[in-house]
Task: structure prediction
Amino acid sequence: MISVREIKDQLNEQFAKIGHAISSPKRLELLELLRQCEKTVETLSQNTAMSVANTSRHLQVLRAVGLVETRREGIYVYYRLASEQVYQLVSSMKSLAESRLAEVERVLAHVNADLDELELMDRDKLMHLAEAGEIIVLDVRPEDEYRAAHIPHAISIPLASLKSRVEELPRDQLIVAYCRGPYCVLASEAVRILRAKGYQATRLGDGVAEWGASGGSVVTAQANGHRVGH
Result:
């Protein structure tokens, strides 16, 4: 008969497999990307600046413990998060790290070192101004993520294209950029680019996931203005 100690050890051994799977910085990045939308290995390779082979290896580790799932469409295999719990786990871990590890705060401060006057705009105020056409809401994530889900009234100009497309934006309106959430640096970089070009710009601390979790409407590929979250 199996002892209580053996049961405890076996359970903790299984639990530790999840910890091992998310112990890699690159695998954490892959989970963050897959929270935005499902992606192929090739797209994830481009997003993370890893080789396709290395990206595939990391995905197999995540798949082995059930954190990601796949579907096939023609010759392509699409990866997605296995459930919302996966995102909640990663989000809770990041929040814990920010509260317990001084280095996280130091890195975030460095990211925004030259943006001391940066204002985090309130979401209700943002929606009111966006609906009235008084501000521009700018999604600087890759286009596939924008197509999958975005904040209402947002327009898409990926960060990689912003410098070449900046003239598409009006100069007489405040531009509010957002990306993948509080630990994503794309929006901060977009604000730097815009301000260097003479635009008035700020950023939204929320990403689409945080926006939806707080009860905000999110425009999805399935339904225009679909409401997610609480």
